[in-house]
Design brief:
By secondary structure, the protein is mostly helical. It has 2 domains: 1-62; 65-324, no CATH class. The protein is 78% helix and 0% strand. The chain is built from 13 helices and no strands. The radius of gyration is 22 Å and the shape is globular.
């Protein structure tokens, strides 16, 4: 009966549901492959040491200076939050309206809590907040969020390219694709900017879509400013992750990490539990330190997410008061 009611009232609900099912299956397959690979590598490393997997990983965790590690991670998370808020506030100023940095902090921090479960829902919560608190149309906020996500890809690609040229000899051979990807990305970005400036296909109306508003208003200087504003976060991450790796007993250089991190951050964006894709990539990149890298990837990425959510809790009551009060 319930299925009949849903079918009659929403005849078009089939395709989205089917698409959602396919997405979940892909999600589960990626997750299963990641965990299977990690188990295979860690179990093999434990066997070589003559230990059980539990004893092997216990030994890895016992050899870490956790106090020093927690100290640098707390500082990094706070610094990232400040930079992240700055990027959002400036992007809103460019394309929508000037909103104080301190007024963006509560919603940006609170969105981290929701983003533990779903990044898109977190951005939707920001749109709702800015709509009710500052009378900003939700579609304009959505346009800014899309612009930020779009620029994030090229920002990471630029730093991956810089890292490659600084430490090509220390990187896996497959990283040799990065310069070609960067060249293709640069061509695409130039064509993208020319299109939204009206130079290419001036009669095409796709650029007038509401959610593409930020791209239509954006000029080359906005893309450059995004890169400059966001870059302190990646540079701080290189220092923090290199220092943290050494605390886990793994030697790594700053230049090599500058090549690794943008790629790993791409992997961290893959929606797998506990950032399994990113953890797996750490093990792949440092094959001689399977246990250390699995432990490192697990605590590094998950601590960052959870501590950001803790920052959100500090602003949660203020955000609710301003949204519903």
């Amino acid at each position: 009966m319930a299925e009949d009611i849903r079918t009659d009232s929403a005849p078009d609900a089939g395709p989205p549901r089917k698409k959602s099912l396919v997405g979940r299956i892909v999600f589960l397959v990626i997750t299963a492959l990641c965990f299977a690979y990690l188990y295979y590598r860690l179990n093999g490393a434990a066997a070589r040491e003559g230990l059980s997997l539990v004893d092997y990983m216990t030994q890895v965790f016992a050899n870490v200076n956790w106090l020093a590690w927690a100290g640098i991670m707390v500082c990094y998370s706070i610094f990232y939050f400040l930079i992240d808020t700055l990027v959002v506030s400036r992007a809103l100023r460019w394309f929508v309206k000037d909103i104080k940095y301190t007024d963006i902090m509560p919603v940006r921090a609170s969105a981290y809590i929701i983003s533990i479960f779903n990044e898109q829902v977190g951005k939707g919560a920001m749109a709702l907040y800015l709509n009710r608190r500052h009378n900003v149309p939700a579609w304009e906020v959505g346009s800014v969020m899309i612009f930020i996500m779009f620029c994030e890809v090229f920002y990471l690609l630029v730093w991956a390219t810089i890292g490659y040229f600084l430490s090509a000899d220390a990187l896996p051979e497959v990283f040799g694709l990065i310069p070609y990807l960067a060249l293709g990305g640069a061509v695409f970005l130039v064509l993208w900017v020319l299109y939204f400036s009206g130079v290419i296909l001036p009669g095409n109306r796709l650029r007038d879509g509401r959610l593409l508003h930020a791209f239509k208003v954006a000029r080359p200087r906005h893309y450059l400013m995004f890169f400059l504003l966001r870059s302190p976060a990646i540079l701080a991450a290189v220092f923090v992750y290199t220092t943290a790796l050494n605390l886990f007993g793994v030697e790594a250089g700053y230049a090599a990490l500058l090549g690794y991190l943008p790629v790993i951050f791409f992997a961290a964006a893959v929606p797998t539990p506990m950032r399994a894709a990113a953890i797996t990539l750490w093990v792949v990149l440092f094959p001689d330190n399977e246990g250390q890298m699995a432990a490192f990837g697990f605590v590094q990425h998950n601590f960052f997410i959870l501590f950001n959510a803790a920052i959100g809790l500090l602003f949660w009551r203020r955000a609710q008061r301003e949204l519903f009060g």
